[in-house]
Amino acid sequence: MTIDAVDFLIIGGGIIGLNLAITAKQRHPDCKVMLIEKETDCGLHASGRNSGVLHAGFYYTPDSLKAGFTRQGNHLLTEYCLDRGLRINQCGKLVVTRNEHEETVLDELLQRGIANGVELYRLSKREAQEIEPRAKTWNSAIFSPTTASIDPREVMASTLDDARNAGVVISAGTQYLRTIKDKIQTNHGYLSAAYVINAAGLYADNIARDFGFSKNYRILPFKGLYLYSDEPPGTLNTNIYPVPNLSNPFLGVHFTLTVAGKTKIGPTAIPAFWREHYSGLNNFKFAEMTEIVGREMGLFIRNDFGFRTLALQESAKYFRGRLVKLASELSKDVRKSNYKKWGPPGIRAQLFDIKKRRLEMDFRFEGDHKSFHVLNAVSPAFTCAIPFSRYLFDKIDNLVS
Hints:
Shape: globular
Radius of gyration: 21 Å
CATH class of the domain at 1-52 and 151-216 and 360-401: Alpha Beta
Structural class: alpha+beta
Oligomer: single chain
Helix content: 25-40%
Number of helices: 10
Number of strands: 23
């Protein structure tokens, strides 16, 4: 039996896995760093299906990891795109209110933004409509000038080139199967790794349990869909978002400008029935469905963290009319006839605490001197990828030292 030996093995070729691999090589240039990805290319799941929004970092409480990493990541990824000549639409974002109650939540967002060091402006209705004449708001709005849009596939391709140029061995089409006596079995044979880093997204919890971690966590998948407008580029000047429900990690239906200036509305956050439940029966796995649907039924019956309400509201967004109606609360002149094309679905790998029966709102990870596991790298992980990966490697270096 031939066993390939490496110093660092990264499982998962998304934006976090690639940045962790690059950081490993930068900090340990004499070590052999290998990244395995089960698909034929990197970034075919969440990273490549990302909304493309570079968030600014004002949604999150100052004590969260997301707060600092989003602000830092926004700056670093904006700089990266400009330096590499990658497309970026620095269009900003308006957060608008729909009723008097949301004005209070808007105040909270403004305070969080100030505490997080994010550039934000409180605007009157008139000032908001000077930025975007079609925007609707109850009384006031927030403008975030540093929010931008990029093409996630372009960023992924560039980051993959960076990893290869740094000396990382990229092995696409190589799937982790299991761990046997400190050896990693893949569909192409066995690997011996001095240190394993698990950034497998939708399957991170399963892999972590092979190493004795993720005992209290399971991935709960949610499907995100966008509807694309056939209106010409420049129809809107900026992203338009509603005030979010701060008790869950989803931001509600909003208008997103693509890097080319086109408009899309969404996303949904529809509970999926298996981990890669993109459409039809593709990637169907009976055992996965049994476990996930069983868990979702329990959450639905008990209505933990408002899951029943969330599931019903989000499932209704499968209908174009419902999605367009919600979007029309944020902008004038929104017509269903302009929104006919669904974009490719994405799946959010949302971590669920099975003991406390709640969704994890912040990044979560576990590890020891042999392995490290990125369990919850949900939105805005794409924005946060560069500083978050560096932070994680600080943790890893301390564990192995």
